[in-house]
Amino acid sequence: MIYADNAATTKMCKVSIEAMTDCIEKFWGNPSSLYAFGQNAAEKLNQARKTIAECIGADSAEIYFTSGGSESDNQAIISAANIGAKKHKKHIISSTFEHHAVLHALKKLEKENFEIELLDVHENGIILPQQISDAIRNDTCLVTVMFANNEIGTIQPITEIGRICHDKKVIFHTDAVQATGHLPINVVEQNIDMLSMSAHKFNGPKGIGVLYVRRGVPLTTLIEGGAQERGKRAGTENVPAIMGMAAALKESCYNMAKSNKKLIELREKIIDGLSKIPYSVLNGDKKNRLPGNVNFCFEGIEGESLLLLLDDRGICASSGSACTSGSLDPSHVLLAIGRPHEVAHGSLRLSIDENISEADVGYIVRSVTEIVDYLRNLSPLWKDKITGKRKFFLI
Ligand SMILES: *Cc1c(COP(=O)(O)O)cnc(C)c1O
Question: pLDDT tens across 55-99, in order?
């Protein structure tokens, strides 16, 4: 099997599995218990918090454990909205191509009379800092823009957006689920007030994540109960998963430079290969994208058919995001960058990791090329295009 869907989830790395197993076997006490056996677990928890904080240039006291990216996004947005509302600030700025965890949380707030302004994304999949600057008003309580897009991989000008927000004293949250462990992050230098991450996107376990909240930025309580997470999120900590997450993040950050160099070379080979397919287009910026991300549209095919035939050849890939697959709507991200509906339906996302070889890359390119050709030859719509009865969207 060739696994090229790392944006959906990743395989746990060895050190992460070992850290988790070690914890389950030896440190299974409750960190809130006062006897030494409980405090041993508390000590492990503190170490993990410190490790994670160091990876993003934060302080231990600014790390809140959550159940993953979706929870962190929800918590950040709802909290900033609650605090904004108290000051009669009910304007929130975001973008049209955020993850659904952000978009749906914002939709909920809209029903509660918040004004949500979603900025358009340019065709290359990047928001301009100037757009943020122009949109901020006196009653803006939050700007939330993702660090790197999960479908087209484009990296946003986070540092500049953060600077603008700081100058105008608006809270800045970024969904960094795709970026954490894959791109260098420093919350201080990049002017980030709140940041979401999820362990299973950087070779850690599923169901665990972090919300970083800068000291001094108020946070409302998400789950009432015990005093865990400084009273903001009650419930006995998932210590094994937290230890697995810390080990995975530390390793990802340690290997990042070397790994990214290799990934970019392989990514460029795939992009060059797939660009040779007629009536195809690369989605997102050519260079300013996640090292492992490739996303193409092929005119005249259905993404789902392509995926199933790739699966027959042992290749795991994605078309649109996992949350929208199964529905007939094309990806909101591809629509946001201006792809017509028909073209957006024929999309393919490959998100590779270091386990992919050069030979695998050749096999992927060959397979996609053959399958696209096969599917087009089956399609009456395609025949109409070839004979000039219908127009092409792409050249
Ligand atoms: C995967 C993902 C999420 C959701 O994270 P979970 O841990 O699966 O809840 C949120 N945002 C982005 C950009 C993602 O890629």
Answer: 999 999 999 999 999 999 999 999 999 999 999 999 999 999 999
Residues 232 and 134 in one domain: yes
Evaluate whether 275 touches 298 at the Cβ level (below 8 Å): no
Q: Note whether 235 and 225 are within 8 A (CB).
A: yes
Q: pLDDT tens-digit profile of 209-219? A: 999 999 999 99
In this structure, the residue with its CA closest to atom 10 of ligand 1 is 69
Number of domains in the chain: 2
**CATH number of the domain where residue 241 is located:** 3.40.640.10
Per-residue model confidence as pLDDT tens digits over 259-278:
999 999 999 999 999 999 99
Return the SS3 of 195: strand
Three-state SS at 262: helix
- Residues 320 and 151: their CA atoms lie apart, in Å, by 7
Instruction: Tell me which amino acid residue 176 is.
Output: A
Compute the distance from residue 252 Cα to the ligand 1 centre, in Å. Answer: 17
Across the range 185-193, mean pLDDT stands at 98
* 141 and 260 together in one domain: no
Same domain assignment for residues 289 and 338: yes
Mutate to test the pocket of ligand 1, among 74, 99, 104 (most ligand atoms within 8 A of CB): 99
Task: Specify whether the CB–CB gap between 194 and 171 falls below 8 A.
Answer: yes
Please report which helix (H) or strand (E) contains residue 179, including its range. none
Q: How far is the CA of 142 from the centre of ligand 1 (A)?
A: 20
Q: What is the distance of C-alpha 18 from the center of its chain?
A: 25
Strand 347-351, strand 293-298: pairing: antiparallel
Q: Which domain holds residue 322?
A: 256-386
pTM of the predicted model as reported, rounded to 2 decimal places: 0.96
Closest by alpha carbon to 232, among 243, 218, 246, 244?
218
How far apart CA 72 and CA 220 sit, in angstroms, is 12
